[in-house]
Every structure is written in structure tokens, then in C-alpha cells.
Amino acid sequence: MTPGMQLYTAQSFAQRQSLVVTAQLQQAICLLQMPNAELSSFIESQSEENPFIELRLPPAPVPSAPLGKTAPEDWDRVAGLAADPGPSLYVHVAAEIARLGFDAPQAAAAQVFLDALEPWGWLGRPMEELAFRAGLSLEAAEALLARLQKIEPAGLFARTLAECLQLQAEEQGLLTPLFAAVLAHLPLLAAADLKGLCRACGCGMEDLKAVLRSLRGLNPKPGALFDAAPPPQRPPDLVVSRGAEGWRVDLNRSTLPSVVVRSDAAEGFARTAAPYVGERLSVAKWLARAVEHRNQTTLKIGAEVVRRQRGFLEEGLARMAPMTLREVADAVGVHESTVSRVSSGLMIATPQGTFPLKSFFTAALAAREGDTAGSAAAVRHRVRQLVQAESPDDPLSDDAIAKIISDEGVTLARRTVAKYREQLNIPSSVQRRRQAIVTGAL
């Protein structure tokens, strides 16, 4: 031991706060982000395990104020009126193959081609591979493909875009030598090089434009006609309406489930089951309180969002105000993570349409002195408006859009415009001009 060094032990005391995440707390957190339909399923699953829990659903939609779009009581009705999407592409083509009268070996080979059909109607595998799988020579496979390409709608079983359009042009009597020449030079058309296309096809501009008008009437993805109908939009969890006292937000009671605690059912259990009864009753009462807490928290957050987004409710996306999770959390008196969970799972119906609650949380952009800061959502909307209103022969560059919006009061950089344009799936100004030439807008 080094001279002068002493060893000794000591105790110190300190307080520390920590949160123990119990199973019930985890469930309560999950309840916050459940939409009404998911909440119903959760309560139902709990009722199957607990004899003292009963799921109660609203008997019928309740009246509410009109919203300018679809009223809440119409959600179930509209969903029930969804059109029959009809057979899928696979079912349709399988039925058509059966009508062709193939023998057993031919039918088996046709099945190989059917299995290779992509959702948009083209073949997704090379002919050599399909011929091998079908046990056919390449010549026999080509002959079988020619028969399959007679199936309606024209263009199915095409191997390329040019072949897909050619099959449709043949069926409609459009396949002139000039039309075939254009199909043989589709890369020039994609590049909007109409002068080069005229030279390659040996024709004048007017004749070429006549072919392009016919070409635009064809469908490059005939299989997409059989896409299943999109699932009905799920009903909103919150409904915004305007009354005599201003804007208000309500829970959508037409889909809101509730928990009934069946305390009377405990009387039928023997005394020996008392521990089980007590534990199950406790769980049932906790679930009822947790669901009520979820509803109240949802209402508080929804009300604060509505209070901050009055401009949007009255005038639309152009007036979407910047708003952060922290601002709403501080106003409501909950943690920021609670606002995040609630907003991520719920839908809100407004006079401007139905949106995910999270879409109202958008960052603020810098503004000139004296101007109100704009939100990212409002600026994206303005970018879309400017592009839609531009002249096809002189589309706005990102620099031009940035200058217009900056002159309107929100400081915007060119790279920010480019980012928002990409988020909106808007091509660049050069690409937009090319598209205008190809579509005949110029």
C-alpha cells in the first residue's frame, strides 16, 4: 500500500424517479393509438377471456351536423354500396383460357403462361424460360402465346410496351405502317424528340401528331382494369362540425365501442372462486377506465388541433398553420409521446375532407419580418397550385417557384421546392415540358 493512503467504506443515499412499464400500462398506451374499429376488436378479445367484460357497440349511427363532405352517419351506408369489383385478372384470364378449348397438355402449358402474368397484364418471364417450364419448343410456345394474346382486353400477354400497344392497335384497326414505325421508335417518343421521330419514321409532323392522338387512346397496362376495388376508407374517429358557438370536435359515436362491466355476473360464482372473480372484475373495471381515458385524451387533443387549424377548416390547405407535437402537448397537459401516439392512429373528418390526425402536424417555414410563418403543408399546396396553373410551353423552374412563394412572404430555397416537388410526385420543369409535347398539350 502506498504510504499515506487509507482505505475506508462509506454509504450515500440518493432519490431517483423511474417508471415501471407494467402490462396494464403497455395496454393503456396501445389503446391511445387504436382507431375505433381496432378498439372494438380489442375489447371483444378481452370479453372472450373475461366473463365480466361486455363489448357494447352503438345500435345505429347518430345524427350530426353536416360537414360539407360525407356526413358521419353515411359512412356505413356508403361502404355498403361499394360496387362489385368483378373477377380478378387471374380469374378472368383463367376463364377465357378454359373457353379456348385446349386439350390437357395445352391447358397445362397455358397455365404456365397464366402464372407468369403480371398484375398490369404483361408476361413477367422470358419466353425461353416459359417454353422450358411448359415442356414446349420455342416455336410451339410462340404459337401458344399468339392464341393467348387473342384474349380480351387486347394487350394481355404482351412481352414489351411496344407489343402491348401493337396488339391493341391491331384490334382497333390502327396499325398502319406509320403507326408500326412509331412503335418501333418508342425511346424517341419517350424523350419527346418529335423531330427525330419524324426523321426515323419518314413522315411529316402533322401525320405524326395524328398517330400520337390515336396512340394516347391505348392502354399500356390492360391488366390494371381488373385491379380489385380499393378498400373503403375507414370511418373517422373524430368529427369536426361548426355550430352557433363556433367549431367543435366530437368522437364519432356511430363507431365508438364501450366497455360494460358485468358486476352482477359475479354473484353466480361459488365462494371458492372468489380470488378469480376479484382479479377478473378488477381487470374489467380497469379496462373501462382505460377506454374512457383514451376517449377523453383523444377529444382534448382533437379540440386543440381544431382550435389551432381554424384557417384550414374554413379555407383549406392554403391556410394550414404550422403546428408541432410539443405545442399541442403543452396546451393539453400531456406528454409529447401521448400526442404522437394519438395522432398516428386516428382519422378526423372535417369540412375539407377526412385526414389522418397526424397530417395536421407540420413544420413552420421562415417568413419575412411582419409576415406570418407558413407551414410546410401549405407551401407544398402552393407549389402544386403554381404547377397546375403554369403554361405547358413555359413550365416554372424550381427557382421561379421559390421566388414567387418568397415574394408572397415565406422564405423558400430552390432545393426546398425540389424536395416538395418530389414529395408531390411532380416532375421537373424539363420533364413537364416533354410530357406536354408527348400528350399534345403543345
From TrEMBL:
Residues 86-262 form the RNA polymerase sigma factor 54 core-binding domain. Keywords: DNA-binding, DNA-directed RNA polymerase, Nucleotidyltransferase, Sigma factor, Transcription, Transcription regulation, Transferase. GO terms for biological process: DNA-templated transcription initiation. InterPro entries: RNA_pol_sigma_54 (IPR000394), RNA_pol_sigma_54_core-bd (IPR007046), RNA_pol_sigma_54_DNA-bd (IPR007634), RpoN_core-bd_sf (IPR038709). Coiled coil: none annotated. It holds the Pfam family Sigma54_CBD. It comes from the Bacteria. One of its GO terms (molecular function) is DNA-binding transcription activator activity. Residues 276-434 form the RNA polymerase sigma factor 54 DNA-binding domain. GO terms for cellular component: DNA-directed RNA polymerase complex. Gene3D superfamilies: Homeodomain-like (1.10.10.60), RNA polymerase sigma-54 factor, core-binding domain (1.10.10.1330). Sigma factors are initiation factors that promote the attachment of RNA polymerase to specific initiation sites and are then released. Belongs to the sigma-54 factor family. This is RNA polymerase sigma-54 factor. The lineage of its organism: Bacteria, Pseudomonadati, Pseudomonadota, Alphaproteobacteria, Rhodobacterales.
